[in-house]
Known about the structure:
Elements: H1 2-45, E1 48-49, E2 59-60, H2 64-70, H3 73-85, H4 87-102, H5 110-122, H6 125-135, H7 142-147, H8 161-189, H9 193-201, H10 206-217, H11 219-234, H12 238-243, H13 256-265, H14 270-298
Antiparallel strand pairs: 1-2
Amino acid sequence: MYLDNVYKKKRKVNKEGLSGLLLSIGPVLGFVLFGLVPMVVAIFMSFMDIYGFSLEGAEFIGLNNYKSVLQDSLFWKSIVNTLYMSVSTFINIALALIVAFLLTKKIRGKKAFRTIYFIPYVCSVVAITVMWQWIFNTNYGLINGLFTPEGKEPIDWWGRADTFIPCLIIMGVWSGTGYGIILYGAALTNVNGALYEAAKIDGATPVQSFMHVTIPAISPTTFYLLITGIIGALQEFARPQIISGSGGPDNVGVTVVFYLYRNAFQYYQMGIASATAWLLAIIIVVLTIFNFAISKLWVKYD
Length: 302
């Protein structure tokens, strides 16, 4: 009887292990096929002279692709453009914290407000971009219609180098703040109330309580939003490409991924595109490591 029970338990454990293995195979296989293999292939391609989408006739040229990218002024301009557009990430975090904090107060319709703020985040990037493209349209846009004085020329928002990226930043803030509001809302509700009571007993003002209790308590959420926001900003492509497939005035809409896309699918320089992809990966890794290093100075997990 004892041996029968042991055998049944082993069979049950084996079935559970087999089920877990089968469930885990799908994601792992997907990563290997669509993540790991392309990464390895891209490494080899970055050291080869390849024209088009075939490896036929490819020639090993060492670091020449990396040299070509690093010597291209447009690549460095694309980095500056990308960093400029990433300003929306920091504005998103600040606005999300303010709005989420206000929504913790006793006001009516808090759930409705959270839903309204979150809707732009889950909408299609293409749809949102097209909408804002029309809002800032020179002749028919809402902005020019409301704020252009009679008799004056409307502003060509998408046709000027000094207004192209600010318009994208406004679009990014409008569509991305809702995500931070939801996360901050959850973080704020989990702040230990005893900390506020202790601060009040010590004579802290509401502003001091917010700065010295609230902000440290929700710093892990801020850190998460900062890391994911910066990584997402460095991969910016869809919005500027939809607005202007040519890269905008004076190439101000060319981001690093846009630069990669051009070399891959317009100029068919797959070696250059692969080298660009790995340079971008290195930039992201370096910034992420730097953020984790300095996070020890301001992120509180207790």
